[in-house]
Design goal:
Rossmann fold; alpha/beta; 6-stranded mixed sheet
Length: 180
């Protein structure tokens, strides 16, 4: 029996709250530590899900939140942000190039987490191979090339959430204006 497609609705997010609230504060702290060097004061959490990144934000940082589902969110309230975050988002979007191009016009930094296929792994046997949930799969070099194509270059990458999250990588990109 084939699994059913994931529907990102209120039931989905209520389930996420039940399953992951115990670890959300810990993972969110790791994410805030990962982006600290941006010195961002205005942040957009694009694909905010349950809203943990906004809920656990440091003082004096404003976080707007947006998601495709009808979950509590502020919406995109500013024309520009210091930082746009996409935590566990990109792999769920089939055609992400347009979204990235739009977001690239709104920020200096983009931070994200995404599953990265380990070298030599057969994708069909990989724990993050979820055809009804994940629309896109990445390796580091492809992701870096994608962001370079919209004017962003890698500041840092790594696996600060591992453990407990196996094969999840974090990336921080900065927009570099190259004068010709």
């Amino acid at each position: 029996m084939d699994p059913k497609p994931i529907i990102y609705n209120l039931d989905y997010y209520e389930n996420m709250l039940r399953m992951y609230s115990a670890t959300s504060e810990h993972i969110t702290k790791i994410r805030w530590d990962f982006v600290t060097e941006t010195k961002a004061t205005h942040v957009l959490d694009f694909g905010c899900g349950c809203g943990w990144f906004r809920a656990y934000r440091p003082e004096n940082i404003e976080v707007d939140s947006f998601d495709v589902a009808s979950v509590p969110q502020t919406g995109i309230l500013r024309k520009n942000y210091d930082l746009v975050c996409m935590w566990d988002v990109l792999e769920h979007i089939e055609n992400y190039t347009h979204i990235l191009a739009v977001l690239a016009q709104k920020t200096r930094y983009i931070a994200l987490t995404v599953p990265i296929i380990p070298e030599g792994t057969k994708i069909e046997k990989w724990r993050h191979f979820k055809p009804y949930e994940h629309c896109s799969y990445f390796i580091c070099s492809e992701l870096d090339a994608l962001f370079q194509s919209i004017g962003f270059f890698i500041v840092k990458k790594g696996q600060p959430e591992c453990p407990p999250r196996k094969d999840i990588w974090s990336f921080l990109y900065e927009k570099i204006d190259i004068e010709t």
